[in-house]
Amino acid sequence: MTDTARVIAVHASAAHSFSKPQADGIELHEGRGVVGDAHYGVTVQHRSRVRADPSQPNLRQVHLMHAELFDGLADDGFRVSPGQLGENVTTRGIPLLELPVGTRLTIGDAVITLTGLRNPCQQINDFQGGLLKRLTYKDDDGEVVRLAGVMGIVSRSGRIQAGDTIGVDLPAEPHFRLTRV
């Protein structure tokens, strides 16, 4: 981790759209998510998961994505800007994918507890052909690697905005790697 971990953009959309427009700030509500976002709620709001079991707890209240991913995608010829892949919070300077389950991120007054990895879907290829294979692939051991950010729940309400620093509080050991939620 670096001393410069920060938020570079925040996003929300009341519609279940693929991309989310940038906002000046977003309000996080404990146990529910991003106020005004389509995924706000105590129970799961992702449409395919609602169809499967609408009573599931919402472990995907906030989606965070690292801007370093966009840099790597640009090197591969893709053009992706913050918010275009549907994240609520775009970060820089923090290795989100390497953090363990239960990590608490303090941003402004808000606290987000990480629950798992985003599982990218076909909509990513609809956005830009070939992008899904760049964001999800199998490593040399046959394990699926997911690069499309992390998901979390809001553990303390607060407002966050671009420029906010990100504090990291790791859970007690043993640490468990993030898996898809």
UniProtKB/TrEMBL annotation:
Residues 21-169 form the MOSC domain. Pfam families: MOSC. This is MOSC domain-containing protein. It comes from Gryllotalpicola koreensis.
